[in-house]
Design brief:
- With 205 residues, the chain is an alpha/beta fold.
- The protein has one domain: 3-Layer(aba) Sandwich (Rossmann fold).
- The protein is 41% helix and 19% strand.
- Helix 1 links the parallel strand 1 and strand 2.
- The relative contact order is 0.16.
- Keywords: Flavoprotein, FMN, Oxidoreductase.
- InterPro entries: CE1759_FMN_reduct, Flavoprotein-like_sf, FMN_Rdtase-like_dom, NAD(P)H-dep_FMN_reductase.
- This is FMN reductase.
Length: 205
């Protein structure tokens, strides 16, 4: 049985990155929740920091490099997405937004998606509802109810961060199981991919 694939997009700018750490923990929670219900899954990391120059060039030239094209393909072909960004001025990072701006309209439609963000203070936590959810609603992704925001102080003991991560991971796993991604049929993929002439297509009418 082919495993379902989760694309884990992290837009952290530092090294090491709390954004990447949060993405990793959400990935692990989702994989564990899927394993608990008997689903076989694998995850692929899509780290945007090394692609920053490629993403910027793509915005002005509309020509994606091989590395950026591969990253975009991992996301649009995934069965689910975990998307995590640092917060600046109550919004997602420019790197995060520019990457998703490079994905064509409709390519994320119906993909189960979990959103998360990091920031220096809890006052930025509204970024989930004011910026991230509207963007992914526009992209027509299936976004889980819980969103995890991790402020600097949340990385300490007893902050509740672990519980929120586990909850969102389970919600994504449940959505993947109950409402798997609906892939639209390719109009050119007829009868297992065999080519049909125009006359044969008319015969099916």
């Amino acid at each position: 049985m082919t495993p379902v694939r989760i694309a884990v997009v992290s837009a952290g700018l530092g090294e090491p990155s709390s954004t990447k750490l949060l993405a990793d923990r959400l990935r692990d929670a989702t994989l564990q929740a899927l394993a608990d219900c008997g689903a076989h899954a694998e995850a692929v990391d899509v780290v945007l920091r090394p692609l920053a120059q490629d993403i910027a060039a793509h915005m002005v030239t509309h020509n994606a490099t091989e590395a950026l094209s591969a990253a975009i393909r991992e996301v649009i072909d995934a069965d689910a997405i975990i998307a995590v960004t640092p917060t600046f001025n109550m919004s997602y990072s420019g790197l995060f937004k520019s990457f998703f701006d490079g994905i064509e309209e409709g390519q994320l439609a119906s993909i189960p998606t979990a959103l998360a963000a990091t920031g220096g203070s809890a006052r930025h936590s509204m970024v989930m509802d004011t910026a991230m959810r509207p963007m992914f609603a526009y992209l027509k992704a299936q976004v889980v109810p819980t969103g995890v925001f991790a402020a600097s102080e949340d990385w300490g003991a007893d902050s509740g961060l672990d519980r929120r991560i586990a909850r969102e991971g389970k919600e994504l796993a449940d959505l993947m199981t109950a409402l798997p991604r609906r892939r639209e049929a390719d109009p050119f993929d007829v009868e297992g991919g065999a080519f049909q002439s125009f006359e044969q297509l008319l015969g099916h009418a």
